[in-house]
Amino acid sequence: MSKTFTVFDATWLAQAEAKRYSDSWIGDVIASAEGKSYLEVLRVWFARFPLNSIKDRGALKARLESLNTSDHLGAVNELSWWEFMRRTNLHAEPIPTSTTPRPDFKVLTPSEFFVEVSTLNVSETEKKKLQDEGAISPDHAETLGRFLLKAATDDKTGQISYAVSEQRPCSLVLFDYTAFGTQRSRFFANDLFGRTLKCARLPIGLSAIVYVERKVIDGRIAISRDRSAIYYNPNAKHPLPTGTFSALRQFWCQMVETEPASPDYWIWL
After folding, report:
1. Spatial contact of 160 and 168, defined as CB atoms under 8 Å apart
2. Does the pLDDT at position 140 exceed 70?
3. What is the C-alpha to C-alpha distance for residues 60 and 76, in angstroms, rounded to an integer?
4. Which of 17, 77, 89, 166 counts the most CB atoms within 10 A of its CB?
């Protein structure tokens, strides 16, 4: 590669300090030692992320350094899931961007399938309530509705269709920033596979949804092993083998559940 990219250099830090605004992620980062550690983790991840295209690497850099919280977190989620797959012995490669929608990753071993990474952000209703009242009570049912909408009718349909055309399973990884410290993953499992069988609303091209609670602790990024989970679509055209992402809690039809492979509470990335 003829061009070298780095992220969060001294010039960027000075500009970010001058431009930061109240609802940007950068405000909490620049002023703390934990924030400096967080940026250093992302520098290392970005440097080893295997993108060969100068255009794609430049685009990822721009998203990581964006002061828009949604853009920044979207890029961080992709790097976080890449690191998660590395640490759980899944050999994957990022898929170059194209004029037509494609998933973010192709997993090569232990089986071939595609992965699309996305985010469940706080809804506008929740944002307003947080501003007006200073706190919100998690609305699991409303979030599950957005969860299913993103899987079935959002811009993810193109990525899912690409996997179907390749005759391979496709999993949608959703990072949730709407509530922490709840058992939302179990509520989702009950509604998807319990009496209401809302899993019937999942597109047949989608093989599984992975729900992820991610947190930054002392500058390090970790995934909750207890409150993250994978849900297998029983109607998938190309099923994902059960036991995939075994580091997380597993759910499938009729509320069958298996515990994570390790008792450790956090998966440190």
Report:
1. no
2. no
3. 9
4. 77
The per-residue pLDDT for 80 is 97
pTM of the model: 0.87
- Packed helices 54-65 and 33-48: angle between N→C axes, nearest 10 degrees: 170
- Average pLDDT for 166-185: 82
Residue 40: closest CA among 60, 62, 13, 67: 13
DSSP for the chain, please give it: --S---SS-HHHHHHHHHH--TTSTHHHHHTSHHHHHHHHHHHHHHHHS----HHHHHHHHHHHH-SSHHHHHHHHHHHHHHHHHHHTT-EEEEPPP-SS---SEEEEESS-EEEEEEEEPPPHHHHHHHHHHS-----HHHHHHHHHHHHHTSTHHHHHHHHHHTT--EEEEEEE-S-SSS-HHHHHHHHHHSTT-GGGGS-TT--EEEEE-EEEETTEEEEETTT-EEEE-TT-SSPPPTTTTTTSEEEEGGGEEE--SS--SEEE-
Whether residue 247 contacts residue 193, with contact meaning beta carbons closer than 8 Å, is answered with no
Domain ranges of the chain: 10-268
Q: How far is CA 135 from the centre of its chain?
A: 24
The C-alpha atoms of residue 179 and residue 150 are separated, in whole angstroms, by 18
**What is the structure's pLDDT at 188?**
81
Evaluate if residue 251 carries a pLDDT over 60: yes
Phi–psi pair at 31, nearest 5 degrees = -85, 0
pLDDT, residue 268, reads 93
State the average pLDDT over residues 20-27. 80
